[in-house]
Amino acid sequence: MQRVRFLLGSRACLQRARLRTTLLRDTEATRCVSSRYLRTSQARLKFFHQNYDYQPDYKDALSQSFQYSEEVQSALAEGRPVVALESTIISHGMAYPHNAQTANAVEDIIRSNGCVPATIAIMDGKVNIGLTPEHLEKLGEMGAKSHKTSRRDLAVVMAHKWTGSTTVSASMILAHRAGIKVFVTGGIGGVHRGAEQSMDVSADLYELGRTPIAVVCAGAKSILDIEKTLEVLETQGVTVATYGSTKAFPAFYTPESGYESPFNVSDPDTAARIIEANARLQLNSGLVFAVPIPTEDAAEAQGIQDAIDQSLREARQQQIRGKDETPFLLKRVSELTGGKSLASNIALVRNNARIGSDIAKSLAKLTGRRPFSNLSRPLEDNDKAAKLLVIGGVAVDVTATIQASDLPTTLQSPSAPNTSSYLYTSTPGSIKQSIGGVGRNMAQAAQQCGQTTCLASVVGDDDFGKRVTQALHEAGMDISDIKTIPHQRTAVYNAIHGPHGDLIAAVADMDIFSHLSPSMVCTAIKQIKPSLVAFDGNIASETMISIGKTCRALNIPAFFEPTSVPKSIKAMHPALLQTEALQFASPNEYELMAMVDAAPLAIHSLGTDLQIDLPEYPSRYLDAAVALSTCIPTLFLKLGAWGCLLVTRSKASVRCKYFPVDVLSESKVVSVTGAGDSFVGTVLANLLGQREPLEADLDARLGILSSAVLKGQAAA
């Protein structure tokens, strides 16, 4: 069993405690410094904006331009398979009401096959990933009145707040931005006949060369020059494979075009492995899985060819070109074949939806993106399934440490509280990055103590997110429940430490944790049914309330790690406390005082039966801890170098016990970052390792809890 060094007793923590105590004793002076600093900071910020170019965060702007249906958003966050669909096939591919009926039928096929459909369109200038039935009906009725939107048209349609039906190329772009890996359509565009004179080549082919998404289709539309289309796809580096037992490349209405694909794939698992390998190699190009139309639905080849030839002649005579040509040809071919081509069109789209959803399911299974609902199996006798579920933050820690040798002699003392000389200038030091986050620290500490643990969290689709998941995987942690949220930043904790490890200032960018929604965490708790649920202060109050209600319904105790003073008061929401599920908390002294102040009812101390001899510093917080125990029965009060004060209550009776710690020599201190989280993780692991029930009498309960604290301090 690995040992986790308990760092709360370090000299650095002792100096931090002294610094904070000094500041608390002189609150008026602190207010003056804060006010002066605020005024100075505002002036510096104004100067910056006046003298330097300001670049807005376009990734945030992009996320604000996307609107996800509730069904799609939930599926993406939970890692369930999603299949993207274009909308031009609705507005320009078929006449009303066949278009709306087919769109709804295709979505139903995808749902019945265990996936979530995400039809893509621009509605009133906003990208919609997933359309409502009303939206589908609206597009069907509008038909060609909606703007046919390819890559070149996206910005214009959005800027004018128009309604746009997205082509294959635009749908690929938007689906990729949304984090969707599989896209289903009828047929891709290609090289038009006579392109050697007109230079008319569909944007679909170029998009396939630069957007890594799998396109499931019935090949290229048979109105096109299929031979040249395959040549362009080869030039663009696009993987093309026929989905079937042969390499015959389909021609939309008919299963064979007379040309062959470079490869063939006969099952969804193989297709999924190809998609995964394409992503792993970061080829940044798309893939085409060409699905032949079922023989029973195929149109008669010669009749279709005659209709296409006549339609092409009419298009040339009427000088119909560009984006208007394909809709005209499809409509005219349908008329000339007496509707037989339309029936084939509808049949092939439905078939593609079935195949595409099979591939999406296999891909989800292969990449391990299990939904929250599969966090774990119910516990069984002698099972190794997770008893502890940790819900909270995983982040990148960026720590800057100032070099002592470059400071004035008066500032090199570890007890010096003055940090004013660090401000408004650069200071030599070292900077390092590591993987942290309160939830992650707790979960890893519990796991290293031998307790099977599951961590539920979220990361952004940025470089930090990739680094976090890779680092956790390399550390041996299960990353299948670390969900990637499109268009969001991975959490970052940026700290500045003094030369002796004391915290000077820090910035925590934790906005992404608002995406840990109530529905996600409640589903997780219901599925895993852990013995204990721990959550940190990074998640939203609404999510905490849902955790409390779900834990209460399942009779599961909950443990709260406050994380910081501002976040600690979230747990004082009346709706959460009323569930009575919140049985444990681990505040430090400052978080304790904030929680007492924020308590929704007049809490008071019942300390008449307390007989405890405490050092002066821990004794300052005893009354507040006893008072808070009326809301949260058991508190592990973290006091830095002063150790831990345990307070536990049963009705009107209270028990307390104090646990001092040995101060480590400064040479043994590696880092103080995450020390409190690691302590909590070991306490959690050892609470679950106890054989006696916590519902025992109060003195026995105190003994059980004390054992957990001691093992936590020893990190054994």
Automatic annotation (TrEMBL):
Upper classification of the organism: Eukaryota, Fungi, Fungi incertae sedis, Mucoromycota, Mucoromycotina
Entries under HAMAP family matching the protein: PsiMP_glycosidase (MF_01876)
UniProt keyword Protease, yes or no: no
Name of protein: Carbohydrate kinase PfkB domain-containing protein
InterPro entries (UniProt xref): Indigdn_synthA-like (IPR022830), PfkB_dom (IPR011611), PsuG (IPR007342), Ribokinase-like (IPR029056)
Gene Ontology cellular-component terms listed: cytoplasm
Organism: Bifiguratus adelaidae
Entry keywords, A to Z: Glycosidase, Hydrolase, Lyase, Manganese, Metal-binding
Keyword Metal-binding: yes
Any one GO molecular-function label of the UniProt entry: hydrolase activity, acting on glycosyl bonds
Gene3D superfamilies in the record: 3.40.1190.20, Indigoidine synthase domain
